[in-house]
User: What shape does this take?
Amino acid sequence: MLISERIFKIIKDKNMTQTEFAKRVGIACSTISEWKKRKTNPSADKIMDICAALEVTPEQLLSGRGLDEEDGQGKSKKEDRITPMDWQIIVDYHGLKEAQKRRLLAYVEALKQLEKLEGME
Assistant: This one.
């Protein structure tokens, strides 16, 4: 399945109009029509915007995994719990200097320790 076909399926599943989707992503409706008519895919620079608008991860959009799949007990798989916000945190993390990364990781560890002390695990 083409990425554009998956996009149209998600739009339909979310009861979203193509116009609403276009506004959320910041692209022209004619662009979406071109994807449909010519069976082409969106440009790579729009993938993150599309994921945010559709509330899916890049992996879900590109591979289709996790969109309809559930484990045998009706619960989403662990890897399906990665949200677009999680991806944004990863992107932001990679933009940090090494000292900032170490500081952030130390802060995360301190938060985990604080939760243990407060019995919030």
About this structure: Residues 69-79 have pLDDT under 50 and may be disordered. The CA atoms of residues 90 and 105 lie 12 Å apart. The chain has two domains: 1-69, 83-121.
